[in-house]
Amino acid sequence: xxxxxxxxxxxxxxxxxxxxxxxxxxxxxxxxxxxxxxxxxxxxxxxxxxxxxxxxxxxxxxxxxxxxxxxxxxxxxxxxxxxxxxxxxxxxxxxxxxxxxxxxxxxxxxxxxxxxxxxxxxxxxxxxxxxxxxxxxxxxxxxxxxxxxxxxxxxxxxxxxxxxxxxxxxxxxxxxxxxxxxxxxxxxxxxxxxxxxxxxxxxxxxxxxxxxxxxxxxxxxxxxxxxxxxxxxxxxxxxxxxxxxxxx
Length: 248
Hints:
Rossmann fold; alpha/beta; 33% helix; Dihydrodipicolinate Reductase, domain 2; six-stranded parallel beta sheet; single chain
């Protein structure tokens, strides 16, 4: 059996993860960690009391890096669904995971549909020199742009050097009107509004045509198959992985 601790256990994603773990024949929930009325308030509290094989983290952008450092330094394998890590932080976690031989799985999005959307966008990026990303989330999401949008832009940038080909010189009369300029000039626009859960649209354009690739999540249950895949992968392999696409 795989002993699982869930950090952010009382959050919406944490509760969904716990519900799913309880249905798995090969997993046991050993710790609910949450600063707000959790079984344990900290990862250290849980580690001192129970044996943890893998910690699943769905907490906050401001805490995830320190959580991951603690886990890797204490040989606790970790599956990270919390977004907001910088490229530099991800690289540091990769180095630490490799040096400690402790599993670290980071996924900007655990939905298989969203992963396919990212891969389709990467394929399309070879054939279009103009593209922008619009990501839409509920108004309680604290980081922007989303990890999914950042990962999508990074994948697209691997196959094309610029996505503003032919654009005129621009002036923003209101700062930020053109969104954030990310990898290789891919503009990312973040929408935060009640009524959304998680959606993303990648828009490609060239003379005489546009291509739109969109994914919508309407229930957190859609992330659970990906979370289970990541847990089982980390249980067996104990290495660093960034992106669910690497194990599908």
